[in-house]
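Incident review: delayed structure delivery

Summary: a single-chain prediction request sat in the queue longer than the usual turnaround. Root cause was a stuck worker, restarted by the on-call engineer. No data loss occurred. The affected request and its eventual output are reproduced below so the record is complete for anyone auditing the incident later.

Affected input:
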Amino acid sequence: MNQQDPKDTLLETIANLESKIEFLLRAYQSKPDKSRYITAQDIEADFGIDQRTVLNRSNLPPSHKQFIPCLRVGGRRKYFDRKVIERLFSANV
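Output delivered after worker restart:
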């Protein structure tokens, strides 16, 4: 039987870990498409609604009638679907 050299196995493991770390870093640093998603600060600027109101409503349970769906991509920043926000707040403004 051919035994693999422990050094080769270790190098393969290190290469595998490096590729996984690179993938995670790219995912963490990625940002959603600005044409499709909007931040709470942008909502405040465009619609005049306090960003804390939007962020608080995104923390409600999905069954609540005032819930606003959001997306988190790396970090703490929340992104909201632009079409949903325009539909929600254009009717109220």
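Verification: The longest strand covers residues 78-81.
Action items: add queue-age alerting; document worker restart procedure.
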